[in-house]
Amino acid sequence: MKKGDHLFLVDGSGYIFRAYHALPPLTRKSDGLPVSAVLGFCNMVWKLTQDARNTDVGVVPTHFAVIFDYSSKTFRNDLYPEYKANRSAPPEDLIPQFGLIRQATKAFNLPCIEMEGFEADDLIATYCRLACDAGGDTTIISSDKDLMQLVGATVGMYDPMKDRQIGVPEVVEKWGVPPEKMIDLQALTGDSVDNVPGVPGIGPKTAAQLLEQFGDLDGLLTRAGEIKQEKRRESIIANADKARISRELVTLKNDVPVIEGLDDFTLHEPDGPKLIGFLKTMEFSSLTRRVAEATGTEPADVQAVAVTIERADTAHGPDVGFGVPAAAESAVGAVTDEAGGSTAAGREPREGDTPSLLSALRFEDATARKIDTSAYVCIRDTAVLKAWIAEAMEAGIVAFDTETTSTDPMQAELIGFSMATAPGRAAYVPLAHKSGNGDLLGGGVVENQIPIREALGVLKPLLEDKSVLKIVQELKYDLVVMSRHGIDVAPFDDTMLISYVLDAGTSGGHGMAALSEKWLGHSTIPLKELAGSGRSFVGFDQVDIDKATAYAAEHADVTLRLWRVLKPRLAAKGLVSVYERLERPLVPVLARMEQRGISVDRQILSRLSGELAQGAARLEDEIYQLIGERINIGSPKQLGDILFGRMGLPGGSKTKTGQWSTSAQLLEDLAAEGHELPRKIVDWRQLTKLKSTYTDALPGFVHPNTKRVHTSYALAATTTGRLSSSDPNLQNIPVRTIEGRKIRTAFIADKGNKLVSADYSQIELRVLAHVAEIPQLTQAFADGADIHAITASEMFNVPVEGMPAEIRRRAKAINFGIIYGISAFGLANQLSIPREEAGAYIKKYFERFPGIRDYIDATKAYAREYGYVETIFGRRIHYPEIRSSNPSVRAFNERASINARLQGTAADIIRRAMVRMDDALEKAKLSARMLLQVHDELVFETAEAEVEATIPVVRHVMENAAMPAVSMSVPLHVDARAANNWEEAH
DNA sequence: ACAGAAGCTTA
DNA sequence: GTAAGCTTCTGTT
């Protein structure tokens, strides 16, 4: 190699992963072999090796090599055993492509370089240095930040997937430091993917700023005491060693004893027949054609060649990591603490044990017996199933779980079920597992499974038996699935809901995996180990029955053990009535609502979608006219660059990632100053939002059989006790703008029916008036007065009559502010007034309503003392961070806890109404059915003739929902209306 | 494929 | 200033 020569080094391993995820899936037609990354690789290499005019790099390579990782074990593992330890196995359909890409490289007549003990990056670094020594230039084909330290006068990078050159300026722009400081920057930031530790709390922005200030890592570490920010200083001093080891890990080795020299990399003309042989084997027809043309080869004369296809267990490529999940020791501490230390040590529970003692004993019991997933029974015979069911009947208690093909219970097909009668004693009953590898003729039902009708016939009496308690995790799902098979499961307990009642607001969710870790110290088998994930995901019916047995029976076993630990805790904490009145009975109510669904008129949506598309297209044209370029308007990044960079509009704030903010608020302000463009962008966003989120998405949720839309309500998703709705979310259907409201006209009643919408008026303010005992507000609600006007009148001494709209608007904002845990900052933002003015309003408000200030102070003090707040029905919401030393974290938790009492109480009230509603309607012999809940609103469908009789019943149940548990000092008021669609009923 | 940011919809 | 979920874009594995 000599001066003027140009070496191309392709980061083969890096490319494989990126291509795999970036490119659409592609399989070889003849046999389904996954080849998308192989095709991407071949296209790229072909382009790069052709004449410079055909490439995007703009230079002609004289030397060319493709570099791979040999395996994930390298000298870095000796430096730091955890290095890359949390890498997971590559996706199954990528594995055969590792070998194929190496074979592709050889077919291109290119050197295929890898070396045991070194990463591809080290080899690249070494060849860069060799080329530089010889006076040549190098282009690294990669976009990996780990390679950016090599960039310099003779070394550049090129990202083939984004067609982007990466030189010194690009590195500085992206990372804030020149390439030679990348090593120090990475040493500070670390890399969670490769398990490079770095310094906790230091990200790229901070690292760049520190390196600017102190020159380099050594300078920073020696003078760390000079850093002003306390946390940052302490973290850097405490983690200096981690930074040093990180620097070693990220520093690429440029003196690897390589075997091939640069002269071996001299680029030759491609060998047409050899390359075409490989491409034909891969069935890449269009690339075959192009290569044939360029090399003057006749493809028909070339035979496809044999390739080696590696199986998952023999493939090179990144090894599976050894990351072992940390044991959940916290749970041990939690329980024994509450049980009073060691009093619970290893004895049998006795009659008369206190609930907390019992819970601790059960906890010990549950964790002492280790979970052995290989010890479960697979039931494939009706007689055996009957014996298990008899055992469950005898026990009076059984944990139960279903296995299906979908997370949507309305679409799910039942594949099997599992049950547990005692810890460790669990079984799985396969019903509809299929065999075959998914080819067209395969997919036959596996033999020796109990016929589904027969099994369910045996199971039904158990699930419906009043004397047998069924324990289920996330009960609602199974309730819907079993209800579709004509089984009404009762009575029941739901471990997810018990956890939610006990621990809403504490870290960690209430799903089975999290609860098992937390309470049993046991990691459950992840579904993806059985069924894969992403593109390789298969339905549960394709899962091997032995594996399914371990997985499914484990669920029943874990559920039962969780119940034994958690259920006594309810009593220990005085939360039984919350669970029994607000949570458990709502499950079948919601299950029925979800199963009913609501009718949606697809024609209306389709017409609206067309109108929105037209409107958006017109605005798009006008926007392109104004900016003189066709950018992606949906990209805030591009938009910000054009608006505030090139066009020089007065840009406001930047977001936390340093981008220009293009929020609607900011664009509205610009529009108000007379700029034409921002208005159009805001309008365009509204139209495209309505189209993509609603008119285009909703029809996809119409169920093929019922022709209705079935949302899914989550009972344990919010901290405050509200429900949430998803797939689709029917709790955020537009209502504020006229364009948005049109979407509601598509939600319709079936023929002969009406929709009835009933909503609580100002429920959270009424709750506030009640709990804070504010006489003026209580009186105003009793009088049925305009609450915001009364507030304004009290504050500003103006009569309600003839009050200017602006005055009332401000009082309204303050009222809402109180519910949200008011701050001067927030109120100022909302009203677009200076913070001082907002502060003065709040002061004035508290002077007139001192009871509210007392209420807020009392709530904060309570939350700080106990770590939680309670609704008036006793629901607990935890705020573990309320004592944080960070003032903004603390303030946030204070606001949230103030809001939680109000929002949570309102949520409890509507829950109580929902639990009673079906009974009340039945007693009144009405056909009305509850369909939707939107926090303070219930939507029903009812026979047209019964509308007049239905509304008073609904109103009565809702308005008296707090009774008799709580007699509120403020009346609840419900507005209700009937119409053919949701827009008119609301 | 997935995660995070930005933005927008609701109560 | 509270509580959610969904879509698009962007960057990364």
Describe this structure in words.
The chain has 986 residues and is of the alpha/beta class. It has five domains: 6-168 and 253-301, 5'-nuclease (Rossmann fold), CATH 3.40.50; 369-578, 2-Layer Sandwich (Nucleotidyltransferase, domain 5); 599-724 and 734-744, Taq DNA Polymerase, Chain T, domain 4; 763-905, DNA polymerase, domain 1; 908-985, Alpha-Beta Plaits (2-Layer Sandwich). The protein has 39 helices and 23 strands. A six-stranded mixed β-sheet has the order 3-2-1-4-5-6. Residues 312-346 have low confidence and may be disordered. The structure holds a DNA duplex (11 and 13 nucleotides).
Any descriptors?
986 residues; alpha/beta; Rossmann fold; Taq DNA Polymerase, Chain T, domain 4; 5 domains; six-stranded mixed sheet; 23 strands; 48% helix; DNA-binding; RNaseH_sf; DNA-directed DNA polymerase activity; exonuclease
Secondary-structure blueprint:
Layout: E1 6-11, H1 12-22, H2 36-49, E2 63-67, H3 75-79, H4 95-107, E3 112-113, H5 120-133, E4 137-141, E5 155-159, E6 164-166, H6 168-175, H7 182-189, H8 204-214, H9 217-222, H10 230-238, H11 240-250, H12 272-282, H13 285-295, H14 330-338, H15 355-368, E7 377-378, H16 382-395, E8 397-404, E9 414-422, E10 425-430, H17 452-464, E11 469-472, H18 475-484, E12 492-494, H19 495-503, H20 512-520, H21 527-531, H22 545-572, H23 576-583, H24 586-596, E13 598-600, H25 602-627, H26 636-646, H27 664-672, H28 676-695, E14 708-709, E15 712-714, E16 724-726, H29 738-744, E17 747-748, E18 753-760, H30 763-771, H31 775-783, H32 787-796, H33 805-819, H34 824-831, H35 835-848, H36 850-866, E19 868-870, E20 876-878, H37 887-923, E21 929-933, E22 937-943, H38 947-959, E23 974-979, H39 982-985
Parallel strand pairs: 1-2, 1-4, 2-3, 4-5, 7-10, 8-11, 11-12
Antiparallel strand pairs: 5-6, 8-9, 9-10, 13-14, 13-17, 15-16, 18-22, 18-23, 19-20, 21-22
Helix pairs in contact: 1-2, 2-4, 7-8, 7-11, 12-13, 14-15, 15-22, 16-17, 18-24, 19-22, 20-22, 25-28, 27-28, 30-37, 32-33, 33-34, 34-35, 35-36, 36-37, 37-38
The chain binds a DNA duplex (11 and 13 nucleotides) through helix 1, helix 26, helix 28, strand 16 and helix 33.
